[in-house]
Design goal:
- The protein has 520 residues and is α+β, with helices and mostly antiparallel strands.
- The chain has helices at 25-36, 65-69, 73-89, 108-123, 136-142, 164-177, 227-234, 306-319, 377-390, 432-436, 451-460, 466-473, 476-479, 481-497, 505-514, and strands spanning 15-21, 41-44, 60-61, 94-103, 132-134, 153-162, 181-183, 186-193, 199-205, 211-221, 248-256, 265-268, 277-282, 285-289, 293-294, 331-337, 357-361, 367-371, 444-446, 449-450.
- Strand 8 and strand 9 form a beta hairpin.
- Helix 1 packs across helix 9.
- It is globular, with a radius of gyration of 22 Å.
Length: 520
Amino acid sequence: MKLARAWPTPCDGQAFDLLVVGGGATGLGVALEAAQRGLDVGLFESHDFASGTSSRSTKLLHGGVRYLARGQLSLVRQALTERAAVLKLAPHLAQPLAFVMPAYSWWQKPFYGSGLMLYDLLAGRAGLGRTRWLSRAATLQALPGVQTQDLRGGVQYWDGQFDDARLAIALARSAQAAGAQLLNHTEVTDLQHASNGLSRVSLRDRLSGREAVVHARCVVNASGVWVDKLRQRAGTGHPPPAQLVSPSQGVHLVVDRSFMPGEQALLVPRTRDGRVLFVVPWLGKLILGTTDTPRTDLPREPLALAEERQFILREASTVLAREVRLSDVRSEWVGLRPLVARPEAAGTATRMLSREHTIVQDAEGLVTVVGGKWTTYRAMALDVIEHCMEKALLPQRPAGPRDAPLLGAPAQAPRVPALHSPPGLHLYGTLAHEVLACPGERRELGLGLTEAMVRYAVRAEYACTVEDVLARRWRALFLDAREARSMAPAVAESLRQEDVHDPDLAGFTALCGHYLPEER
Ligand SMILES: Cc1cc2nc3c(=O)[nH]c(=O)nc-3n(C[C@H](O)[C@H](O)[C@H](O)COP(=O)(O)OP(=O)(O)OC[C@H]3O[C@@H](n4cnc5c(N)ncnc54)[C@H](O)[C@@H]3O)c2cc1C
């Protein structure tokens, strides 16, 4: 079972049908879709799977109530269908969740309620539950801890929630089981299109510094907000392509469940300054967020602006009965949305599939996919593979078993603690017995993580560093950064026992400071 990080021998000089750059939701979805069609697939991720935007989402599987307000009904319908599909693919990692919009004015219940009934209508058979008007008493029961002053009632509707980073690992493992080769901590450093129709792709192992070259018939650039960097590297001899991505950052704060100890989420559809605020129970804590602030740079670890943090604290304190202070924040994380700037500005855009995601093919044959959201990763993957087949960049192959459950998924919705409960063995689904077979299953290191889970993360889930374990295989950094820091030495020790030469304990300890606004 031990996964020795097989580098570089099986890779150097190897040729793939399809090479995917980036191991976030988009790239992993593309790799799985292609591998299920029997194509020879390689995926390379410069850091860790989902370490970019894909571990920093609000963790909602949703049709997009916001798009509904803008009248983008077909987008909403597609996302609602995809929401239902993902819930079936991994019921241990993605589950339905009830949301309540508390109403403080007489018009809010009918206004929001009728919009959400349209949401139900669009979902059709993919619906998760009916929208209901709630009385004041029912709202208080659903949202214990909500501000009671002037509360008139609420509207309850349904969406989904998930563990984004663990879903990414399930996708990676499922793609590997379907025949794809995936390597994390392996950066694509250069890309040359050769006259024989193959691309020559240079790789660098960021952990050891070793380099290799592989070849591919088709290269898909799924590097999220970083897509333009790769497009520029690949474009030697051509004018630089127009910028495709216009990033926007979103901040989340995590606080204890005691602020709202119920099992339903809260949505403020319109804050005083016209934004949206979610209060979502997740893995034993509460997520508060998010913001939407344009950025011009692309840091790996973006930091929140003071104004963004103040907005979340202020609005959460308005809708909750108890004031939320900076000292209550257990973790603060920031993600960059890969928003499409102006697809037509890319000049060679082959098709703009929707306002949500875009596929662009540059002169060198590099296919870039960007935009969209986690909820629609499957639809994006399908569009990319169909595009590549249409353009004869890939051989025609029929679709594979797209609705097959991901590795670890129980056949039925599991009778296990819901995703809003503290993390535990249930997150491994049908693979829990493999975790229990690792040494140290009784030794807890904190926040539900056992030594056996750490060993399993190395042996079966591609973890190479303390950060891989405590940020993404187990969400400790996102739940409580101080606690994660105190768990780190024991995790590093277990990694060393699993022959990880340098688990980068110092790097992780420093990173925890980024997630603790009080310490900056
Ligand atoms: C604040 C926020 C909240 C969100 N909430 C939701 C939500 O609730 N629900 C939802 O459905 N969607 C949500 N989204 C959107 C969703 O998270 C993103 O659309 C999705 O994660 C993007 O995935 P990606 O694979 O395109 O990008 P990424 O996850 O960033 O993946 C790109 C990967 O490419 C790698 N890479 C870059 N350059 C190279 C290179 N040269 N070589 C190899 N690898 C490279 C990076 O390390 C990175 O891991 C949210 C986004 C944000 C920012």
